[in-house]
Amino acid sequence: MNAPLRRRHAAMTTALALILPVAFAAAIATREAPAVARMLALEPRAVKALEPLDAGQGELAILQRADGPRWQARHDATRIAIAQLDGAEAPDLLAYWTPREAGGDELATDAVLLGPLNSGERTFARPGDGGVLVLFSLAHGEIVARASLGGR
Amino acid sequence: MGHAYRAVGWNRQKRIYDTTLALGAGLCLALFMALTFAANPLVTAETLLIRAFAASAFALLHVILSIGPLCRLDARFLPLLYNRRHLGVAMFTLALAHGVLAFVQFHALGVISPLESLFTSDGGPGTIPFQPLGAAALAVLFLMAATSHDFWLRNLTPPTWKALHMAVYVAYALIVLHVAFGFLQANTSPYLLGATAAGALWLLGLHLVAAHRERAADRAEQASRAEWVDVGEVATIADGRARTVSVAGERVAIYRYGDKLSAISSVCRHQNGPLGEGRVVDGCVVCPWHGYQYRPQDGRSPEPFTERVPTFRVRVEGGRVLLDPRPLPPGTAVEPARIASAAAPRDERELYVGYMPQSPPRQARHTRAVVLALFAACLAVVAFVAIEQAPLGAGQFEYGVVREFRGVLASAPHPHLRVQRPGGGVSSYLLVAPGKHGADALVRDFDGRGVSLRGSLVHSGGRTMVELEPGSIALADISVSAPNVIELGRATLRGEIVDSKCHLGVMTPGERRTHRACAQLCIRGGIPPLFWVEDGAGGVQRLLLVGAGGEAVNERVLELVGLPLEIEGVVSQQDDWLVLSADPAGYRRIEKSEH
Q1: Are residues B193 and B253 in the same domain?
Q2: Same domain membership, residue B375 and residue B400
Q3: Residues B334, B415: one domain?
Q4: Measured between beta carbons, which residues in chain B are less than 8 angstroms from residue A12?
Q5: Mean pLDDT confidence for B304-329
Q6: Are B144 and B85 in contact (CB under 8 A)?
Q7: By CB count within 10 A, which of A34, A142, B414, B550 is most buried?
Q8: Does B233 fall in a domain?
Q9: Structural domain of residue B130, as residue ranges?
Q10: How much is the average pLDDT of B530-536?
Q11: Which pLDDT band holds residue B453 (cuts at 50, 70, 90)?
């Protein structure tokens, strides 16, 4: 570089060294942490509140969809706690209970709606002793997975 | 210009250089996308590409800006400088891909023009829009890339061209601030912050050291008013090499070749490279930057080239070199000074410029080691960014998959389809139009009616939305249970306003600062706003946000979108949705000190 360019380079570098750290620090100083809220009061009341099953409590059943996603259903005499273990969520996923195994892709007409499933574990009242837990995606109109939960 | 140099044309080194560059850029992109996809399998292709291009371009920019000062500090880095323009254009191409994709993704398909959105969104009290910073940087880089050709170099003249290309420092500053006010606002990993700062410190430090060294050399300027200036002993100048001195405000290279001494300006006509750091090859001084050649006795490039540099008179008295500091017109022939003693120190430094057939072995080893190190550094940086970025959300958009849905349509407060669940109860699916538009106009004639409609699903965490296919709604004989509305009482909640469409899966991420402008545009276009609440332990709620009277509040919340807020209002459950009713006048931005 020629002398004027060398001087310009030195001036720009010096200016950058002075201004950039300050501007960068200002940007980081204004950074806001995500707002965090307590949400205990927000559970929909339509779902009957149940004491969740403690970890390790009850028997375990694994439900698996053909293309991969898995759910676990821990159940005792009165409750079924369902949680997705992995894979993508199914849209508008509902948990049903049917008294007996029914083949095919259709939801049995006597299926009892336990409630909607979404992220996290949901605990439902167990409608009967022996039966089949069915996960049904209403938006896809298909049974996603099912597992027979034996009587106790 | 040297006879072996072609201004435009390929040679072996350029091919190796560009192949290496393409391989490096491709590997960076692939590595970033693979790691991001592995950790976020639901990430959208647009997000993958936008971030991969950005990370790769930013890493490459650091490499580019390091080359200049590294060459000033150690001439063995010069092979990297030879084809640096291709590096710059490649980096610009990556940055342009990032910019165009982001521009389309975040600003297109809305109710205002994409340009207006780019420059007017993401503002509001206490926020600095980061996207215009990126756009400004891209404009600067475009100017540089467009003029990265010898055509412009000749037409603008080297000093002007070089001055224009110094705008890269402005572009770099804008990009760092673009990252700091954007990506780093939403990605709070201290390691990402540290890495960005370390990159800036590395570059600034390197340039300051190089500038200091240059300044020190210039400070040692000789007394230029004297008619003849003593510039030292002739015996200290190696054969084929030069001593560079500063006189009359510029550097002069005094070359020794055989038993002769000649002095020419040290400023190459091509890019103002340091001729005094070259060497004499085949009777010509060779510029170390790009290999331009000049005869030492008259400062002219050999035929057929026409470049000329000023020459200086020089003589030897008592073993000392005397220089007349007054420059002669470029290309003026000057009789070389004769040296009586043949003793000259050896200078083992190698000189290699890209058009030469083969790099000397030592230089080649050094270049290979440096290139491998830069490769590894760039890959490490993009891998690090991919791993450290915040999770990209779990929403899904069944783009291109059109399904039929049946239910009863409701238009207030936002269009939704109420779908009967087998066994009792109703699911509500929010309805939106394609692009960044609400579905109000599409559903207007069907409020309260049973319908069938077609569209693509968007869903996350049990919340469901349908992007309507325009014109697909048809009346149908369908009834559903009456709306189930349960008031849950007053609540004060902390969270962020997001647009439901992107947040539920059309974009990943569809929240936080990097998405703010898009969320504003979506909500402005009629997409229902959600209040996204996290409990800090993995629990998430998404509440439909309406005014105190249940009315839509889209236009009134635009400036507060994407910011931490506290809202006090009435929470109710309407079918399977939670609804937060609150007057926007009472929404309160959470101060940083309150976190």
Answers
A1: no
A2: no
A3: no
A4: 166, 169-170
A5: 93
A6: no
A7: B414
A8: no
A9: 14-218+358-388
A10: 87
A11: very high
Which pLDDT value is given to residue B555? 95
- For B68-106, b where at least 16 C-beta lie within 10 A, e where not — what string? bbbbbeebbbbbbbbbbbebbbbbbbbbbbbbebbbebb
| Interface mutation target, options B576, B588, B594, chain A, most CBs of A under 10 Å | B576
* B197 contact A CB<8A: yes
Paired with B459 in beta bridges are: B396, B464
- Is the confidence at residue A46, as pLDDT, over 50? no
A3/B277 Cα distance (integer angstroms): 15
Q: Do A41 and B491 touch (CB under 8 A)?
A: yes
Residues B191, B64 share a domain: yes
Q: Least CB-CB distance to A36: which of B185, B419, B535?
A: B535
Average pLDDT, chain B: 92
pLDDT at site A91 = 96
How many structural domains is chain B composed of?
A: 3
pLDDT-derived band at A151, boundaries 50, 70, 90: low
CA distance B100 to chain A (A): 24
> Which residues of chain B neighbour A4 with C-beta distances below 8 Å?
159
Question: A112 — contact with chain B (CB < 8 Å)?
Answer: yes
A133 is written with which tokens? 């837990």
Which residue from A minimizes the CA distance to B129?
A: A27
Q: List C-alpha distances in Å: B45 to A74, B37, B507, B511.
A: 36, 9, 9, 17
pLDDT value at residue B340: 81
Output the pLDDT for position B147. Answer: 93
B6 in any annotated domain: no
B495 and B554 share one domain: yes
What secondary structure letter does DSSP report for A78?
S
Residue B162 in contact with partner chain A when CB distance is under 8 A: yes
Q: In degrees, to the nearest 5, what angle opens at C-alpha B54 toward C-alphas B289 and B533?
A: 155
Domain co-membership, B423 together with B285:
no
B1 within domain boundaries: no
**Residue recorded with tokens 């001036």:** A11
| B425·A113 Cβ contact <8 A | yes
Please name each of the domains of chain A with its CATH number. Answer: 53-149 (2.60.40)
Residues of chain A with Cβ-Cβ distance to B185 below 8 Å are 27, 31-32
Establish if B352 belongs to a structural domain: no
If you search the block for the tokens 């500091």, which residue do you land on? Answer: B325
Q: What does the pLDDT look like over B6-40, one tens digit per residue?
A: 555 788 888 999 999 999 999 999 999 999 999 99
Measured in angstroms, the CA of A26 and the nearest CA of chain B are apart by: 9
> B383 — phi, psi (to 5°)?
-65, -40
The residue type found at B298 is D
Based on the fold, state whether residues B208 and B260 are members of the same structural domain.
no
The answer to whether A82 contacts chain B (CB < 8 Å) is no
B472 lies within 8 A of chain A by CB? no
Residues 6+ apart with CB under 8 A from B214: A6, A9, A10, B72
Comparing A91-95, B106-110, B337-341, the range with the smallest average pLDDT is: B337-341
The pLDDT value given to residue A38:
64
Nearest to B468 by CA among B457, B481, B459, B482: B457
Test mutation, A24, A94, A110, A121, chain B, max B CBs within 10 A = A24
In angstroms, the separation between the Cα of residue B593 and the nearest Cα of chain A is 9
B274 plus B138 within the same structural domain: no
pLDDT digits (tens, 9 = 90+) for B454-505: 999 999 989 999 999 999 999 999 999 998 899 888 989 999 999 999 999 9
- The residue in chain B having the minimum alpha-carbon distance to the alpha carbon of residue A107 is B422
